Amino acid sequence: MISSIDLNPETKALRAEYDALRKEYSERFQQKEYMISFEEDHIYALYMNLIGQKQYEVFVLDYDIAKLKLKQQYLQSYINRNEKPDMAKVETEIALQLNEYKKKIIEQQEMIKAANEYLKAPLLTDEQSKEIKELYHTLVKLYHPDLHPDLTEKELALFRKAQAAYKQCDLETLREMVRTIDLDKYDDMLDKKGIETNWQERVNKLHEQLDKIKSDIEQLEEKFPFIFRDKLSDKDWVKEQQTEISTVLEEKKKVKEGLLKIIDLMLS
Known about the structure:
This protein is an all-alpha fold. It has helices spanning about 10-80, 85-95, 100-120, 125-145, 155-165, 170-180, 185-195, 200-220, 235-265. The relative contact order is 0.15.
């Protein structure tokens, strides 16, 4: 690739280092994109399906308990005043006080529904998933602006098109984009552009960009839902979590039943 251009040993070494960094950066960039575009949604959906559903049930019970406790307080105030409870007014007041709580319940319900629908959707085969990654990796190496700061507007548009196709799992578009690339010709073009390139400056900048994207990936790994990636594939861990939440549910059901009995007595 660079044999046709007379580069001194120092420049050749810097160019080789740059090429190695460019390869690693494109791999890391693809890793980050994969985490954000695919893996995050999948792990989140699994979590909501296996754990979140039961946590939602706990949340609903907490709402029911809060509602019953407020009703108990309102009824007690009527009893203290020796008045007949205005239940319509009581229910209205309670609904106003717990309005935000109710909104959160609806939001969580929608999230669980979306997660379940996601898991039911057809998935790419392992072969298709592998091909998409490979195609996108090729395009990232050619068109990522961090790797090629002197790209034309047309080339930048191709990069944005590749990003969109990758996020939408548009295999045919990625295939077509790669089919239209003459890789040898493109490498020759890069070499010609690089005759007057300050390779030390490019290497230094790419080191900074690589450190940044590594840091981004590390931060993602420490956040929800990625912190549960391995645990969700551990059936024993999942069962343990579900058992613990079921225990909490049973305890809260007893609290709710106790409050219902108290309110029945207050109304009798």
